[in-house]
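User: Sequence in, structure out. Go.
Assistant: Echoing your sequence, followed by the structure tokens.
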Amino acid sequence: MDKETLKYVLTQSTTRPLPPATPRTLELPLDSTKIVALVGIRRSGKTFLLYETMRRLEARGVDRRQLIYLNFEDDRLLPIDVRDLDLILRAHDELYPEFSGRRRFVFFDEVQGVPSWETYLRRLHDTEDARLFVTGSSSQLLSRELATGLRGRSVSFEVFPLSFAEFLRFRGLEHVPYSRASESRMASALEEYLKTGGLPEVVLADELMRPRILKEYVDLVFYRDLVERYGVGNPHLMRLLLRQCLGHPASLFNVHKLYQDFRSQGQALSKDTLYTYLGYLEQSFIVFPLPVAERSLRKQAANPKKMHTIDWALALPFVAEPTVDVGKKLETAIFLHWRRQREDLGYLAGEREVDVVVNRDRPEQLINVAYSVTAPRTWAREIAALEQGAARFPKAKRMLVAHEHATRKPPAGIQVLDAWRYLLDAPLKV
């Protein structure tokens, strides 16, 4: 990276209009003295959250020339060495000398690709009048570097694909209380949400373009965020694992069984490799392994985890859409609704499984999810699981969330809710 090229990049960033964006639920603090870090899978909307933050600063009266935005995946900046980062403020001072010495707002996008970036940010935080915002697509890299390199100087926010409420906002829809027509629109919108997923680019794209966008997106994540970043030695095995996880959302994941399956297909691998690759998927925000709701670490280790994915639509490049169970998509949507707010989630294992447990150490809410419970057998199964869970955790609220349900009266203590209403109205904290 050289200073003259950097001036071109900074000038372009300062003079071009900010891209239009639909506001998200998450708003970043404008006055925090800490380094604000956004982490999450690529194209989940991190960059547009930076743009929206810049727009809010301008609305406050901050001059656009005080805002420094750089995307470190811009080819004009490559290759980047940590010593090159000193050129950024020098170039900015030469471009806009009238703002030298005044507060600046620095936005670094996809910063994890810069070696030792955290040492530069620490010095910038400690020695300059600057507000700092960074994004990255790797939880392991960012969390480790934030903790060790920034030493308490940062605050992190996770960015997920669109929630159902945000999906409605992107679609220009709003629920009107006490309107049957509006309730029908909400139910129809949920069906579309479960088909489309929540990646903003996919939601806004023409329906015919979505499969192509998803395929290119999965390829990008596979090669850039997995194979290249982690130096994966067996890309074929990694792709098989990625396909397994994306193609079976909200399913129990048994590493030993998968190891045996891959071996029977002629794959040369070890269990350690499988665990390592699974860790890469988790660190890249692609999967969320959900443990069983047990205090005992031994019991947690003995039971398989339930594998949720960041977005069920990512399965489409691997499997035909009708083969992905719509009930599993809805279950993932309910899981992600809670995961956006807290991490202490689990599930109840056994013959009668409870899909989501809020606070796995001391359960506060037991949630079963089904696309349809109109069939008597399905109704009985879901209710029985909740009642069995209540026998263990009598103080926990019990919820059956479904898209389609008959007008049956549930047993005392169990609430039955429309899925769209739950995703819009459920308390973010019990």
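User: And one key feature?
Assistant: Residues 210-230 form the longest helix (21 residues).
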